[in-house]
Amino acid sequence: MAQLIETPNTVAFDQLLCAACDAAKLAYPTEAAAIGRGLAIALADGVVLFSDGHANVKSDTVVDLWYTVNGTCTCKSFQFSPGGRCKHRWAKALVKHAHTNSLPTRHEPEYFATYYPVDGSMCDGRAIHTPGGWRFTPNDGAEPLYVSEQALCLGGGGGIYKKQLKEDGSLVEKVCQRALVSWHLTVTRDDGTQFTLGYETKDKTEIMAEYWQGRGYHVQQYQQ
Ligand SMILES: [Zn+2]
Question: Which residues surround ligand 1, an ion (CB under 5 A)?
Fold first, then answer.
């Protein structure tokens, strides 16, 4: 099952997480400590949801340790927590709750989009604007995640996207660039490998050039 390397919460989504935390503490005042630790894990992008309903939740004490949460938790404190509600299960619950409170309004259009995590990879899917920020649903079946606008390239509407998806998988080149994009950035990593991003406007191109330069990449911009 595919997993995205990074799930950078948006500021708006973080606010929804904090609100979910407050509500949980009101409902379970004796578990406020575990709920608070769950919030910290969720705010630090320590929850990865999967389409089959399970989640991987990061340990906040051991580096690179992830627990599997699906009604139960694989951590040691699960069996000692009231009702089995350890901090990892709270972390997952807060993220799910924030998702529920971040449904898009009925009139928001859905866009074909490509998401660029900071590791330089890319992921095709669909994006829609919600109260929690841009919600991106990957094509590979992973759960939606909230991504910053700077890491998102919006392409054509859903109709174009579906038609193109049938024809081939190279959506960025075939739809995004052909239909709307006239500005390009070529980003070169330290190891010499490159990837190209496309944008509709010069302004956004410059913002994104700064973003990648700030991460230490070499960037070249040009107009088609
Ligand atoms: Zn746990």
Answer: 73, 75, 78, 86, 88
Output the six-digit token pair for 178: 């052909």
Same domain, 194 and 152: no
Distance from Cα 56 to the centre of ligand 1, integer Å: 10
CATH of the domain at 114: 2.30.30
pLDDT digits (tens, 9 = 90+) for 105-153: 777 778 888 888 777 778 888 888 887 778 888 888 777 888 877 777 8
Model-wide pTM > 0.85:
no
- Boundary residue ending a domain (100, 128, 156): 100
DSSP structural state of residue 129: E
Same domain, 52 and 31: yes
Q: Which domain holds residue 20?
A: 4-100
Any idea what the Cα angle at residue 101 is, between residues 52 and 105, rounded to 5°? 105
- Cα–Cα distance, 96 to 174 (Å, whole number): 34
CA of 94 to the centre of ligand 1 (A): 14
Measured between alpha carbons, how far is 32 from 13 in angstroms, rounded to an integer?
Answer: 21
Classify residue 105: in a domain, yes or no.
no
Last residue of a domain, one of 45, 79, 100: 100
Going from the Cα of 28 to the center of ligand 1, the distance in angstroms, rounded, reads: 17
CA of 59 to the centre of ligand 1 (A): 8
